[in-house]
Automatic annotation (TrEMBL):
<dbReference type="GO" id="GO:0140359">
    <property type="term" value="F:ABC-type transporter activity"/>
</dbReference>
<dbReference type="GO" id="GO:0015031">
    <property type="term" value="P:protein transport"/>
</dbReference>
<keyword id="KW-0812">Transmembrane</keyword>
<dbReference type="InterPro" id="IPR011527">
    <property type="entry name" value="ABC1_TM_dom"/>
</dbReference>
<dbReference type="GO" id="GO:0005524">
    <property type="term" value="F:ATP binding"/>
</dbReference>
<protein>
    <submittedName>
        <fullName>ATP-binding cassette, subfamily B</fullName>
    </submittedName>
</protein>
<feature type="transmembrane region" description="Helical">
    <location>
        <begin position="290"/>
        <end position="309"/>
    </location>
</feature>
<feature type="domain" description="ABC transporter">
    <location>
        <begin position="472"/>
        <end position="708"/>
    </location>
</feature>
<dbReference type="GO" id="GO:0034040">
    <property type="term" value="F:ATPase-coupled lipid transmembrane transporter activity"/>
</dbReference>
<dbReference type="InterPro" id="IPR036640">
    <property type="entry name" value="ABC1_TM_sf"/>
</dbReference>
<dbReference type="InterPro" id="IPR003593">
    <property type="entry name" value="AAA+_ATPase"/>
</dbReference>
<keyword id="KW-1003">Cell membrane</keyword>
<feature type="domain" description="Peptidase C39">
    <location>
        <begin position="1"/>
        <end position="112"/>
    </location>
</feature>
<feature type="transmembrane region" description="Helical">
    <location>
        <begin position="186"/>
        <end position="205"/>
    </location>
</feature>
<dbReference type="InterPro" id="IPR039421">
    <property type="entry name" value="Type_1_exporter"/>
</dbReference>
<feature type="transmembrane region" description="Helical">
    <location>
        <begin position="376"/>
        <end position="395"/>
    </location>
</feature>
<keyword id="KW-0067">ATP-binding</keyword>
């Protein structure tokens, strides 16, 4: 969008490819890199809205809702009010009032927002010729195409229903003109019998219609959700650091909106449209004047309804964020109940919830007002239309230009023709919801995937890696969680971890220890630098392939609501009970499991809520050691264990993982004094390195930390 503002035509694929396939989520660095690649220079600015209006050339990119980026392409003023025109990749274009704009742009409580401004740096690059871009994928239409057989079948059934309705009209006309007025009893009985059969057939076809939809829609719905969940698992993990769980839950709900559109609204649209044409064709020969009148009414009604579409889109946009916020709040409220009760936070939390409800209420009120105005205008048009028809039709009957039967038929046709027109409102609503839902779902499919092991054959296999250099080496690593708003956690960072040895990483809180572990596991992608495993550059190894040789226990590891055995072997294709028992012995959790009635088959309820913190951690350790990984990473993995149990777990590890590479991050230094190498971190850099004895002799930061802990113990 920025490039096309400067008159350049650059396909999205070119930008995506050039930015690097393995990066996680879009960050400011990606934007800068993409801009440079196409010949633009960037300036990152922290600015308030007045200066944004006056100083910054549009279009610019804004850091939005503290989690993604949008393009601000225009600022307009109408009746003294300022409007901000935004292009949001997850919604499309949207026009916001200043208050709504600031709510999303200013990070909580601040009086400024972040923006990236652009200017031309290299015209040659900007205007170079690119191959034509393929058309963007439209998720909603893809779904409609997938659903085409059902849509065809259901439309056909609806069509039959329509024909039966038409048959009913004609026979009603005959009933009056031929049966009642000519007093033909046999004909009346025949017509009533036909009406009975036609009505029953209509009921049957409606049931059949619902049945077909339910059957195929369910299948497709499950398949699509499965595909979506699978897709989440291959998105670069950084995405999950940047998005709320409730946002993903809302995206699940988006599938429902698409399903409703596909199964209910779209077939109804085709049917209603066909019926509209069908009845119009019938009306035309009966009375041309009435036909054109009806056409005018249809255009007026459709025009009236389309006026509201932009506003409905905006309401959908605002409602989504409020819903995400509400759901997040409720999760936290339930999960954090203990803290809330303990620290008398109930009133504060409830007030905060009420504030959010008020926001939702305001949006609902706006939606209600909009719908009411739309419906009022539309219904007034409908009533006017009906009155005119009735008056014109009745006059024609008095002038013998229409029979009474024809008059009732026309009245029926007018009624039938207004159904598709009324349906337009439902269609517009559902289409807007489904279209935006489709964009939101597509935004997940558009996220970069982690490269799968089988995606590139040319990549070396890890088993053939030459580890002669004996090190896992971090070279010139820079990493920031968000370069636009945060200082880098690591900058020009170098580190060597000896393969086959135990390395401990200790240091100040927030110094980047867990970040290093996540980078090593390829859960975070670095902004700059390389990591080598022996002589193998890890950026050339598929992350899932690499993770197969790693095991890790994190502070926030997850136990699932499932049996103990299923929690230890997440990969159900290779369950080995003997190995599970062995892993539990290493983790010192076997004796506890043996006390449980169903042993390893015991179900852990609600994500392991029935375990103590120490048992929880030991189960996570058992999971990590189950596959005897080549590289084992413990991030505060034993912090909840008592000193004696921790000691036993560590001894087991030294024994069973003697030849393996082990990285231990711990605050409790007694856990790591036997490590082959200890790294002391400070402000994202290695401050000291050596064995315990060497570091103690240095009398630096490690010495201080250790002395402090010893004195604490003594106290
Ligand atoms: N998901 C995240 N998003 C943004 N910033 C983060 C995120 N995770 C960590 N950080 C920041 O990165 C820095 C390093 O965090 P990290 O967790 O690596 O430190 P640590 O040394 O492991 O700390 P601790 O010993 O307290 O666990 C911190 O300043 C932290 O605020």
């Amino acid at each position: 969008m920025i490039a096309s503002y400067y008159g350049a035509n650059i396909p999205l694929e070119f930008i995506r490819k050039s930015c690097g396939e393995q990066r996680g989520g879009v960050t400011f660095l990606h934007i800068r890199k993409a801009a440079n690649l196409i010949g633009l220079e960037t300036a990152e600015i922290q600015i308030d809205v007045e200066n944004l209006r006056e100083v910054v050339d549009l279009p610019c990119i804004l850091h939005w809702s503290a989690r993604h980026y949008v393009v601000l392409y225009r600022i307009s003023v109408s009746r003294g009010k300022t409007f901000y025109h935004i292009a949001d990749p997850a919604y499309g274009k949207i026009k916001l009032k200043e208050q709504d704009f600031l709510e999303k742009w200013y990070p909580g409580g601040q009086e400024f927002g972040y923006a990236v401004a652009f200017d031309i740096a290299d015209e040659e690059k900007l205007y170079q010729k690119h191959q034509k871009s393929s058309r963007g994928e439209n998720y909603l239409w893809q779904q409609i195409l997938q659903f085409k057989n059902t849509i065809i079948a259901t439309t056909f059934i609806l069509f039959i229903t329509g024909l039966l309705s038409y048959g009913t009209v004609r026979t009603n006309q005959w009933l009056i003109d031929l049966g009642i007025l000519k007093k033909d009893h046999m004909l009346i009985i025949g017509i009533v019998a036909f009406l009975f059969i036609a009505s029953i057939s209509k009921v049957i076809s409606e049931v059949l219609h619902q049945f077909i939809i339910q059957k195929s829609a369910n299948k497709l719905f499950i398949a699509n959700l499965r595909k979506f969940l699978k897709r989440l698992t291959i998105i670069t993990p950084r995405f999950f650091e940047q998005h709320k769980i409730s946002e993903l839950v809302q995206k699940m709900d988006d599938h429902n909106k698409i399903e409703e559109f596909n199964t209910q609204v779209f077939p109804q649209l085709i049917f209603n449209f066909s019926m509209y044409i069908f009845y119009s064709i019938i009306l035309f020969p009966i009375n041309t004047y009435l036909f054109f009148w009806m056409l005018l009414y249809s255009f007026l009604s459709a025009g009236w309804m389309s006026i509201f579409n932009e506003k409905k889109k905006l309401i959908n946009y605002q409602r989504y964020d409020v819903d995400v916020d509400q759901t997040s709040f409720l999760y936290e409220f339930i999960i954090g109940m203990q803290e809330i009760k303990l620290y008398q936070g109930v009133e504060n939390r409830l007030n905060s919830w009420e504030g959010k409800q008020q926001k939702e209420y305001a949006i609902n009120l706006r939606a209600f007002r909009l719908n009411s105005i739309e419906s009022l205008g539309f219904k007034t048009l409908g009533i006017l239309n009906l009155c005119c028809f009735t008056a014109i039709g009745a006059m024609m009957v008095t002038r013998n230009e229409l029979s009474l039967g024809q008059f009732f038929s026309i009245a029926f046709i007018v009624g039938q023709l207004s159904v598709p027109i009324e349906f337009l409102s439902t269609f517009f609503n559902s289409y807007i919801n489904a279209h935006i839902s489709g964009k939101r779902i597509n935004s997940i499919y558009a996220k970069e995937k982690e490269t799968a092991a089988n995606d590139y054959n040319q990549i070396q296999k890890l088993n053939t890696v030459d580890t002669q250099s004996h090190y896992i080496s971090f070279r010139n690593i820079s990493f920031s969680y968000d370069a636009l708003t945060m200082a880098p956690v690591l900058q020009h960072f170098d580190l060597d971890l000896k393969i086959g040895e135990v390395t401990a990483i200790v240091g100040e809180s927030g110094s980047g220890k867990s970040t290093i572990a996540k980078i090593l596991l390829r859960l975070l992608a670095v902004d700059q630098g390389e990591i080598f495993y022996g002589s193998q550059d890890l950026s050339e190894v598929a992350p899932d392939h690499w993770r197969k040789i790693c095991g890790a226990v994190f502070q926030d590891g997850m136990i699932f609501s499932d049996s103990i055995i299923n929690n230890i072997c997440l990969d159900q294709s290779s369950v080995d009970l003997e190995r599970v028992k062995w892993a539990c012995e290493v983790a010192e959790i076997n004796s506890y499991i043996n006390t449980l009635g169903s042993g390893y088959r015991t179900n852990l309820s609600q994500s392991g809520i029935n375990l103590s913190k120490g048992q929880y951690q030991r189960l996570l350790i058992a999971r990590a050691v189950y596959n005897t990984p080549e590289i084992l990473i413990f991030d505060e993995a034993t912090s909840a264990l008592d000193a004696k149990t921790e000691c036993r777990v560590m001894e087991n590890l030294w024994k069973h993982f003697e030849e393996k590479t082990v990285v231990i991050i711990a605050h409790r230094l007694s856990t790591i004094i036997n490590a082959d190498q200890i790294i002391f971190m400070k402000n994202g850099q290695v401050a000291e390195m050596g064995t315990h004895r060497q570091l103690m002799q240095m009398r630096g930061g490690y010495f201080d930390l250790f002395s402090y802990q010893v004195s604490e113990v003594t106290c």
